[in-house]
Amino acid sequence: MDSSLIEAFRNSRIVANADLAAIALQVYDYFLTLQLEVRWMWNTIWTPVKVSYFLMRYLPFVTMTMISVVDSPRLTPEECLRFNNAYAYMVTIDIAFSEVILTLRTWASWRRDGRIGIALILFVLCIWVPALVNLQYVVDSLACEFYASP
């Protein structure tokens, strides 16, 4: 058997194991802070910030599940491509919700100054519009290749 093929199988197992370890750390971190979340977040009124927090907190579990599926050798190349595309957008959404919270906290620390709010909105647009355009280029260039298991 070709040595590069054997190396590819070995690397795919390493990646799958690293993803599994990341999921374990994510679950561990979740349970470390769950008590604080229940105390400070669950019994408060629903606001856009609270919705952003919960999306930021729980969407990564969906994302990690998706990457576990992508690591599966049972996917066809078409399924792999669909999951990789969805994964790329999910990670982007995860990051966006985190940045929404950071941006709102920054604005709040400036006593909700309207000028700072406008500057932050412009900054977010200047960052995210090119990022989304580039993401589309990346997604369009993705390809999945599979090799039969030895």
Automatic annotation (TrEMBL):
Superkingdom of origin: Eukaryota
Keyword Transferase attributed: no
DUF6533 domain: residues covered: 20-62
Keywords: Membrane, Transmembrane, Transmembrane helix
Species for this entry: Amanita thiersii Skay4041
Transmembrane segments: 51-70, 86-104, 116-139
InterPro entries xref list: DUF6533 (IPR045340)
Species classification: Eukaryota, Fungi, Dikarya, Basidiomycota, Agaricomycotina
Stretches assigned to coiled coil: none
Name of the protein described by the UniProt record: DUF6533 domain-containing protein
